[in-house]
Amino acid sequence: MKITVFIGIATSVAAMVIAAGCGSSANGSAYSSGSYGAAAVASAHRATGATRVGVASSRLGRIVVDSKGHTLYLFEKDKNRRSACYGPCATYWPPLLTHGKPVARAGAKQSLLGTTRRANGSQQVTYAGHPLYRFALDRKPGQTSGEGLQDFGGGWDAVSPAGKKVESDG
Question: Are the CB atoms for 54 and 72 separated by under 8 Å?
């Protein structure tokens, strides 16, 4: 009887672990869907914590995006590859963090990717020396609601694949 109960519990736990592994994760990737090999790459990404940066088309043209296709922005107030966005600023403009060397995907240039250490010790991804941020009100891939805003003492602009700020005409 004890063996039957143990096997039943072990089977249930294994099923939950497998189901959790098949679901999306907080750092899931738009790049992880696809062929058999892509699953191994996605798994390696989760294991190393490396953040992926790619390029996508938007109403602003081609822009740098995170692994989920969300627009990445630079903050004009940042100086010398250091973030000037903390506290409430980082609530509205969450920094793009990594736990490993960032990886260039789909049009981004690996040579332009880097990191900078934030005040709390975390590593923020940089592109062409600009610390990268998301905008909290961009809820779907392709949204560029933060473009051109003047918040927290500086301007916010999407980033081009060349590492320059993208400025909208309107």
Answer: no
Cα(136)–Cα(49) distance, rounded to whole angstroms? Answer: 22
- Whether 71 and 65 have beta carbons less than 8 Å apart is answered as yes
Whether residue 56 contacts residue 96, with contact meaning beta carbons closer than 8 Å, is answered with no
User: Is the CB of residue 121 less than 8 Å from the CB of residue 169?
Assistant: no
Q: How far is residue 142's CA from residue 60's CA, in Å, rounded to a whole number? A: 10
Reported as a single tens digit per residue, the pLDDT across 113-169 is 999 999 999 999 999 999 999 999 999 999 999 999 999 999 999 999 999 999 776
**What are 64-96's pLDDT values in tens digits?**
999 999 999 999 999 999 999 999 999 999 999
Distance CA 39, CA 143 (A): 27
Closest CA to 163 of 94, 98, 108, 83: 108
pTM for this prediction: 0.72
- Long-range contacts of 100-103, Cβ-Cβ distance < 8 Å, separation of 24 or more: 100/48, 100/49, 100/50, 100/51, 101/50, 102/50, 102/51, 102/52, 102/53, 103/45, 103/50, 103/51, 103/52, 103/53
Report the candidate in 87, 80, 60 with the shortest Cα–Cα distance to residue 153: 87
Q: Please report, as a single letter, which amino acid is at residue 54.
A: G
